[in-house]
Automatic annotation (TrEMBL):
This is DNA-directed RNA polymerase subunit K. GO terms for cellular component: DNA-directed RNA polymerase complex. InterPro entries: DNA-dir_RNA_polK_14-18kDa_CS (IPR020708), Pol_omega/Rpo6/RPB6 (IPR006110), RPB6/omega-like_sf (IPR036161), Rpo6/Rpb6 (IPR006111). PROSITE patterns: RNA_POL_K_14KD (PS01111). It comes from the Archaea. Keywords: DNA-directed RNA polymerase, Transcription. The lineage of its organism: Archaea, Methanobacteriati, Methanobacteriota, Stenosarchaea group, Methanomicrobia.
Amino acid sequence: MESYTRYERARIIGARALQISMGAPVLVNTTRTEPLEIALAEFDLDVIPITVKRK
């Protein structure tokens, strides 16, 4: 897993939570229903399909 700054981590998790709340498929098996909790679980398992481009 790549090392992200706290700002990158917040942006990735927030963007993924928004995607989930808008109906995107969930990438992990979980019983959680809150989009933010699901996004955190996906981030911990390193399965979020979002990349960070740095200058």
